[in-house]
Amino acid sequence: MEYQLMVEIVEKYGLPGLAIVSFINNAIPGLPPFYLTVISAYAAVSENSHWLATALYAGLGAGIGKVALFAASLYAFSRTGRGRRVKQYSAKLMESRRAKVSLAIAIFFIALLPIPDDIIYIPLAATFYNLLYFSIAVVTGKLVLVTLFYGVGRASKGLISAVLDYLLPEAPTAGYPLGAVLALVAVSLGFSLAIAAVVLAIDWTSVYTAYINQGSRAAVKSFFKEMARVASNTKTAVRDAVRTGRSLISKA
């Protein structure tokens, strides 16, 4: 689905169009998550939009799209002889509720990554993971992801306008469609990389070990401890980078 077509659907149908775009973009394997940029653009240009309504329409559309893809993959694998043998084996591995919940937590955080996550979900379907647990985890993750990108669009609205006014002072007052899209893509990409960096920096082994040994409460504490560690390391890295930059400037 082309980006321009997505924009036209949203312009014509509003929030239902946003849900359709999110569903299609997530149901077709291999597509980059263009719908996130559309959500940011919608948040930036729509004066009457509300974060909760946008999150519900786009988040549910995206989540249901992934569920549809996962269910189709489950069905396809179940039709093969090898798939049926794998199903018998994986059923033993996934007997415990703890194993199902642990994997659901991982799926939730994968759904938070603004990447083509089909490369993970389709192989996961080959293990015949529980559809209900998958659905809850992926829909919840997409709801949070969409809310974050809606916030990016709202927060960057003034910044984008200021940058465009500076770069194109003589442009018509009607707006700068191409420039706005490029600016939103840049902001969304930067935000995507930031989310990915945080998720990848967390020591998930520690969180999982705490969950297995001590339960959900200990896992939550371990998660926030990891978040604090990542924040501290990021603060130190930024401070060192600023010092290095100042040192280079003073020597120049």
UniProtKB/TrEMBL annotation:
One of its GO terms (cellular component) is plasma membrane. The chain crosses the membrane at residues 55-77, 98-116, 128-153, 174-202. It comes from the Archaea. Keywords: Membrane, Transmembrane, Transmembrane helix. InterPro entries: DedA_domain. The keyword Transferase does not apply. This is SNARE associated Golgi protein. It comes from Aeropyrum pernix. The lineage of its organism: Archaea, Thermoproteota, Thermoprotei, Desulfurococcales, Desulfurococcaceae.
